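Researcher: Structure for this, please.
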Amino acid sequence: MGSYVLKRTGQMVAILLMISVFIFMLVSMIPGDPVYAMLGEEVSPEEYQRVYLELGLDKPVIVRYVTWLGNALQGDFGQSTQFHKGTIEVLSERIPITLFLSFSAFLISIPLGIFFGVISAVYRGKRTDTVVTFLANITACLPQFWIGLLVMYVFAMKLGWLPSYGFTWPWDDFSTSIRQLIMPLFCLSLGGVASITRQTRSSMLEVIRQDYVRTARSKGLTEKKVIFIHALKNGLIPVITILGMRLGTMLGGSMFVESVFSIPGMGSLFVKAITSRDIPVVQACVLVTALVACVINLITDILYAVVDPRIRFE
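Model: Predicted structure, token format:
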């Protein structure tokens, strides 16, 4: 197990290194003068020179990359030109909010998706299966920003039941926090519930036809034990793949939800950094997002080995 985890960790580090090269080179190849793009055409010569040297534009691109990577490994992503403070300080204020939203939506999606998937598989071909499958197929295709605008129009603008913007931590004001979180979490969770439902149904339909499931039934076990003890565990391996992908999708999709509901998370920060050409923040956001996604994939690989011990020996 240790060698398996070490191998996957080495692959994760290699992927992060390639992503860091890609994002740095991509930003470096943006047409035009990056200083003018960040500060505008009317910047003073002194300010121009200061930012020019701060970005290391007087050095070769390879030297700039090595310097940037070395500083990033120490937690220094440079100075944000938009907020006029350290990039890591800006991120530290936004990342917890995005992670809170994503993991909350993820934890909502898992039990609901698995439950509906099992129900759909058990009642295959019946009305329950038809309804669940139809709703899952429809909601899996709906874009998050469209759902966000729709629920905001209905529940915030028309009915006035929920606030249309803002974020409050539950421990600061629980009632306000719950009211502000209902619509964003609904938008983030809906696609996850749909995809997990579809994958769980497909996996369970394959598993419940296996010989060991028929043997368990022939021994007189109740249908509930056969499904949830014998069939579900072996049907979870493909579902685990979806879980890892969905969490990464929620992190990426949070920028749309945060922009729609004016939530001060990393997603909305990323959008603002792109529009204002805040290069240090853009690089930091991409690298941090890639790091979180790689860690999620690493955890998913480890869960593979836990659920199916054969994987760790392959």
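Researcher: Any notable elements?
Model: Strands lie at 79-80, 85-86. Residues 223-260 form the longest helix (38 residues).
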